[in-house]
Amino acid sequence: MPSSDRPGSAVGRVVFSDPERHLEIYEYSVAPTEDLDVWYEHPGESVLHLIAGTLQVDFEGRPPVMLGAGDCLVHPGSIAHRWHVVGDQPIRLFLVIVR
Description:
CATH architecture: Sandwich
Largest sheet: 5 strands, antiparallel
CATH topology: Jelly Rolls
Strand content: over 45%
Distance between the termini: 19 Å
Number of domains: 1
Radius of gyration: 13 Å
Oligomer: single chain
Strand order of the largest sheet: 1-2-8-3-6
Order of helices and strands: EEEEEEEE
Number of strands: 8
Helix content: under 10%
């Protein structure tokens, strides 16, 4: 599943999706050259678990958060947010959305 309709956008894999449980799980493996520079908003909570690499998560009107391998971040999906790969190493993460 592409992260946006722009050329070069990062692609995530749907691991699990169950509308009745209001639960979605995605896996992303993203190279520094892939496009993630899109603002997102959605209902529910987002849980990010970074497996490898360094990721900056920007929030509209709030300070950015830097994640390293092994870090986990939970935030409301209703706050506009976007991701940036930091450095020259790819990232790997799981994104869980609970609506």
